[in-house]
Specification:
With 314 residues, this protein is mainly β. It contains two helices and 25 strands. The protein has helices at 13-16, 99-102, and strands at 2-8, 30-32, 45-50, 56-72, 77-80, 87-90, 95-96, 115-118, 128-132, 134-135, 147-148, 151-157, 168-170, 172-174, 178-188, 193-195, 206-207, 216-223, 234-235, 245-250, 257-266, 268-269, 281-288, 297-299, 303-313. The radius of gyration is 24 Å and the shape is elongated.
Length: 314
């Protein structure tokens, strides 16, 4: 006899008073107040259902709580660098990308960037983020990887020439219990998949025509402090394996999507893990145009466009 629902944190009493519920009941039953009638859910609303045989049951509908939205619409961008290194990056300081490091690839005769501001093909607002995998294998050396996958993530990019995967510092402070991760995406895989795992020179890069590239979209909640109280920051080295990981929301279908496709992913807790409001957490949102880009595998020109990313927390 009790029904509870949650609303976005910014919902006002005026908005709660204007909600119009749609109610489904048995074909020969009746309900008062009727479906489709505006009700004031700023306080509890009682519905009375009368069954075909005359049985009466009351349902009390109430507001159970509010949810907070962390949103990245990719509408605002800034120009970074100069000359051949000039490129666009999102204005949000908590969003990072490898584009800054890739902006130096022109020194090796490589043109283009792994991230672009997209203003034509968008879901809403002024722009979206277009991530593009670059085949840099022909020029690879100790500084140039076999591929450079397009990526955007919450956190920081701090170039580590000794360990490229350590350059991506994933996650920002997050003081809510994440419920789900949602947004929109389009994806076109590139034509030639290459495997640069362990390669140290162009000749060691292997073409894998039997493999079709896929994108990766995920959000990871992890503990921000270790047992000694020291700060924890996961990187490309351990974002998928660390013991500090608590929950994740991961897109399972990273295949070709010609049209804008929406996703809504519930956060799933890892075995023997749960949310503890007394602990500090970080949240990493990670989008990549090649899901195995961290292993230097992918296809040139694989293109992932993302827009209107949101994490709903409680």
């Amino acid at each position: 006899g009790k029904i509870a629902f949650k609303v976005i944190d910014g919902a006002t009493n005026e908005e709660l008073a204007a909600l119009v519920p749609t109610i489904a009941i048995s074909s020969k039953a009746s309900i008062t107040p009727a479906t489709g009638i505006k009700q004031n859910f700023a306080s509890d609303v009682t519905y009375t259902v009368i069954a075909e045989d005359g049985t009466v049951k009351e349902y009390v509908v109430s507001l159970a709580g509010r949810q907070v939205v962390m949103k990245y619409p990719f509408d605002e961008w800034k120009s970074v660098g100069a000359g051949k290194s000039q490129h666009d990056e999102p204005v949000e300081e908590v969003l990072a990308t490898s584009a800054t490091a890739a902006s130096l690839l022109w020194l090796y005769g490589i043109e283009g960037f792994p991230l672009y501001k997209e203003t034509e093909d968008i879901v809403a607002g002024a722009a979206a983020a277009k991530l593009v995998t670059m085949d840099t294998s022909a020029k690879m050396n100790s500084l140039v990887p076999a591929i450079t996958s397009g990526s955007v993530f919450t956190g920081k990019f701090e170039l580590d020439l000794k360990d490229r995967l350590n350059s991506t510092k994933f996650g920002i402070s997050y003081d809510k219990k994440p419920a789900y991760f949602r947004g929109w995406y389009k994806y076109t895989p590139g034509a030639k998949f290459i495997d640069g795992t362990g390669a140290t020179k162009p000749a060691e890069v292997v073409e894998r025509p039997e493999i079709t590239d896929e994108c990766a979209i995920q959000a990871v909640l992890y503990e921000a402090k270790d047992a000694a109280g020291k700060d924890v920051t996961l990187t490309g080295v351990d974002i998928n394996t660390s013991e500090y990981r608590v929950a994740e929301a991961r897109l399972k279908d990273g295949t070709d999507k010609d049209e804008w496709t929406t996703f809504e992913l519930a956060f799933e807790y890892l075995p023997e893990k749960s949310y503890d409001s007394t602990k500090e957490y970080k949240l990493a949102i990670i989008c990549s145009s090649s899901k195995e880009g961290d292993k230097f595998k992918g296809a040139a020109n694989s293109t992932l466009i993302v827009d209107e990313l949101e994490v709903i927390g409680e």
